[in-house]
Amino acid sequence: MPLDFATLFPNGVDHYLLGGILIGLATALIYRGTGIAAGASTFLESTLSYVSDRPRFQQFRFVQSRDWRLVFTVGIVLGGFAYTALSADPWFVTDVSPTRLFVGGVLVGVGTRVGKGCTSGHGICGVGSLADASFVNVATFVLVAAGTAQLLFAMGVRP
To answer: Could you tell me the pTM of the whole model?
Structure first.
């Protein structure tokens, strides 16, 4: 059965469009203000630079960006909590088991390291700056995600 636009987006696309515009503006603002692409994948290293003397965590790029990266990441988390507190219909409720969520999180973390960045960093900042590696990574993310979803669906695995 072919999917049409109304089936894919039953609530319309206005809120997606607005969200995309706001993300793009925020990304541009961070880049113009700091000269650094906004991404969350270096949060761990930059945060560990506060407490670890290991040379890996004391690299200039981690120490120099740790304050705003900490605020950026805490803001993402607090934004989610604020939405949940203010929303009459919290959307993060799931029937997925905690074990599957944990394994999925670990796989995302491994993929972030292997791909040299997170999906938001490559998809928003990397593609936005026309970086070849980001185009390759985003295409890989999409193909692997679609393939995994199809494989799991064929195996009868449901959330």
So the answer is: 0.66
Alpha-carbon span 86 to 103, nearest angstrom: 30
**Cβ neighbours of residue 43 under 8 Å, at least 6 residues apart?**
69, 70, 72, 73
In 3-state terms the chain splits into helix, strand, coil percentages (rounded to 5) of: 70, 0, 30
The DSSP line for 101-121 is HHHHHHHHHHHHHHTTS-HHI
In contact, 67 and 159? CB cutoff 8 Å? no
Q: CB burial class (10 A; 0-12, 13-18, 19+) of residue 63?
A: middle
Residue 16: CA count within 13 A, CB half-sphere: 6
Domain coordinates of the chain in residue numbers?
Answer: 9-38, 39-93, 95-159
pLDDT tens for residues 24-58? 898 888 888 878 777 777 777 888 888 888 888 88
- Identify the pLDDT of residue 150: 92
Q: What are phi and psi of 33, to 5 degrees?
A: -80, -30
Q: How far is CA 75 from CA 25, 71, 81, 95, in A?
A: 16, 6, 10, 26
